[in-house]
């Protein structure tokens, strides 16, 4: 399995309270199945990083254009951008264990083909890119299901620490995998490194197949297109989530340049071989692992300051790597870069996972992965093109400067605070019994509020929050009217189907939505609701 998207990090709010008692980062390992999955995912991540190093070094040995070398990263990341939404829907409504088993089996078969073609001398740079792309597609389908599953199998209080451990797994692998690959490349060759990755995929598959006690959450079936639209609509209407995704993309595009061009910096700037390149990647990984142990400190510092400081540190580190002529100086700078990457990406990931309500978690995480991998693909592609014109060293220095500008922009456009937004699910009973109807029919809901004149200004202002709540949870259209005959206010919103409106009542509202709706109702002397079901004419 490739879980190289940094795992969720802690936080039930974008800016968590510094007074919260920190828990041990290792607490989720007391859950046996989480421990088994985490350990084999660690092994799989080590294999994935070994394969990445092997693929990049294969390109270097073939004397390919810098663009093709950078496209290894793009080929791994682009499928997440293309398949993210369908993967989120599958991860939401299908058995997540089954999704992981099928995709893991596909990765084992693809890895076996990769080993065979390389060992027999049939591998070419373009064929390597194609297989890397297919492996990335399997990863794209896995990621939302895997991340949502992690939160499902540990107690709620341990979700932040489970998130941090996912980041530790990725970055321990980043520290160990490249170093091992560097040694194995010089001793046994690229095909052997690919073979080790095949074994790591197989190990994770064995654990998934042996795990037979998993009982998936029960979801009411939704049509695929409607479910996909609901996920996108939620992200588009949730300002907190939208702000975090924009911040993530703005950071990752320039920051990913360092990862994409590091092979060229190793060979052109530092004159290193494959073992030396593996050592550079190990420097990044060691810094990332160290940062994982700073998660409680990140909590106390708050997400805004953590992301701001980490972004600035990564920008400075990128400039420093481009300028450094000595490996002894480059290694500690890369360690700082690895720690800063975790500070940004894992913090945002954890804040997103903790904020997303249960009903849309896998779909919301799929959009997160789309932003992350899409930004990585964009950064990798752009860096390859620009490096072909002006060289890897100058390109990296420019990317570092851009990352610093992104960090500075957070002073003007910070993350939104979520301390007042309660995320527990709230069930809203239907006001009146409604006869059974065709659940696929489009539905129009009319809510009439009788508001005293002195309350109208406050009511209209509150209805802005009501609109966001309705749209986040399924409304495709929304409008507020005033009846000119009697002065009452009428809220009108359209839902794609009656079944989706029932989901809106049963599973999609949170306690924060409850407060929003009850505050609006409290400003009215009376509230009447009507449901209109479209007639098939």
Number of domains: 2
Helix content: 55-70%
Order of SSEs: HHHHHHHHHHHHHHEEHEEHEHE
The CATH class designation of the largest domain is Mainly Alpha
CATH topology of the largest domain: Growth Hormone, Chain: A
Low-confidence stretches: 4-22
Mean pLDDT: 82
Classified in CATH, the superfamily of the largest domain is MFS general substrate transporter like domains
CATH architecture identity of the largest domain: Up-down Bundle
Report the major sheet: 4 strands, antiparallel
Number of DSSP strand runs: 6
Amino- and carboxy-terminal Cα gap? 51 Å
The gyration radius over C-alpha positions equals: 25 Å
Beta fraction of the residues?
Answer: 5-15%
Strand order of the largest sheet: 3-4-2-6
- The general outline is elongated
Number of H/I helices: 17
Structural class: alpha+beta
Give a structural overview.
The chain has 537 residues and is α+β, with helices and mostly antiparallel strands. It has two domains: 28-213 and 222-409, Up-down Bundle (Growth Hormone, Chain: A); 425-533, Alpha-Beta Plaits (2-Layer Sandwich), CATH 3.30.70. The chain contains 17 helices and six strands. It has a four-stranded antiparallel beta sheet. Helix 8 runs antiparallel to helix 9, helix 8 packs antiparallel against helix 12 and helix 13 (361-390) crosses helix 14. It is elongated, with a radius of gyration of 25 Å.
């Amino acid at each position: 399995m490739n879980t190289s998207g940094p795992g969720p990090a802690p936080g039930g709010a974008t800016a968590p309270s510094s007074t919260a008692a920190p828990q041990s980062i290792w607490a989720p390992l007391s859950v046996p199945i989480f421990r088994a999955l985490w350990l084999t995912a660690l092994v799989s991540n080590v294999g994935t990083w070994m394969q990445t190093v092997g693929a990049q070094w294969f390109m270097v040995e073939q004397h390919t254009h810098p663009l093709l070398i950078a496209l290894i990263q793009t080929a791994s990341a682009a499928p997440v951008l293309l398949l993210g939404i369908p993967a989120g829907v599958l991860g939401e409504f299908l058995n997540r264990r089954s999704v992981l088993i099928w995709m893991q089996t596909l990765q084992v078969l693809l890895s076996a083909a990769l080993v065979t073609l390389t060992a027999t001398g049939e591998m070419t740079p373009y064929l390597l890119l194609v297989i890397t792309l297919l492996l990335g597609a399997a990863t794209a389908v896995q990621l939302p299901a895997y991340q949502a599953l992690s939160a499902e199998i540990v107690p709620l209080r341990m979700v932040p620490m489970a998130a941090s451990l996912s980041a530790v797994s990725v970055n321990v692998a980043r520290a160990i995998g490249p170093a091992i690959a560097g040694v194995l490349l010089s001793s046994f060759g690229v095909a052997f490194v690919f073979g080790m990755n095949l074994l790591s995929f197989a190990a994770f598959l064995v654990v998934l197949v042996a795990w037979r006690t998993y009982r998936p959450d029960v979801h009411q079936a939704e049509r695929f297109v409607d479910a996909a639209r609901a996920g996108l609509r939620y992200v588009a209407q949730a300002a907190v989530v939208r702000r975090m995704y924009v911040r993530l993309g703005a950071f990752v595009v320039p920051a990913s340049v360092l990862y994409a061009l590091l092979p060229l910096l190793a060979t052109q700037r530092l004159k290193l071989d494959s073992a030396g390149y593996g050592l550079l990647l190990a420097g990044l990984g060691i810094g990332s692992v160290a940062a994982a142990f700073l998660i409680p400190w990140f909590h106390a510092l708050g997400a805004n300051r953590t992301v701001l400081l980490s972004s600035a540190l990564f920008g400075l580190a990128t400039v420093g790597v481009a300028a450094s002529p000595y490996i002894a100086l480059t290694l500690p700078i890369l360690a700082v870069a690895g720690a800063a990457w975790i500070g940004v990406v894992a913090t945002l990931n954890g804040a997103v996972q903790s904020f997303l309500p249960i009903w849309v978690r896998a779909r919301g995480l799929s959009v997160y992965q789309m932003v992350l991998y899409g930004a990585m693909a964009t950064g990798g592609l752009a860096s390859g093109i620009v490096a072909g014109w002006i060289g890897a060293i100058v390109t990296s220095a420019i990317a570092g400067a851009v990352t610093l500008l992104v960090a500075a922009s957070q002073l003007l456009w910070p993350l939104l605070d979520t301390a007042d937004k309660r995320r527990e699910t709230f069930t809203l009973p239907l006001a009146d019994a409604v006869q059974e109807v065709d659940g696929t029919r489009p539905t129009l809901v009319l809510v009439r509020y009788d508001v005293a004149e002195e309350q109208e200004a406050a009511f209209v202002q509150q209805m802005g929050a009501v609109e966001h709540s309705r749209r986040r949870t399924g409304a495709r259209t929304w409008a507020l009217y005033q009846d000119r005959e009697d002065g009452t206010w009428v809220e009108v919103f359209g839902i794609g189907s009656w079944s989706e409106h029932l989901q809106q009542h049963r599973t999609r509202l949170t306690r924060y939505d409850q407060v929003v709706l009850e505050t609006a109702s409290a400003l009215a002397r009376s509230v009447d609701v009507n449901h209109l079901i479209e007639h098939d004419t």
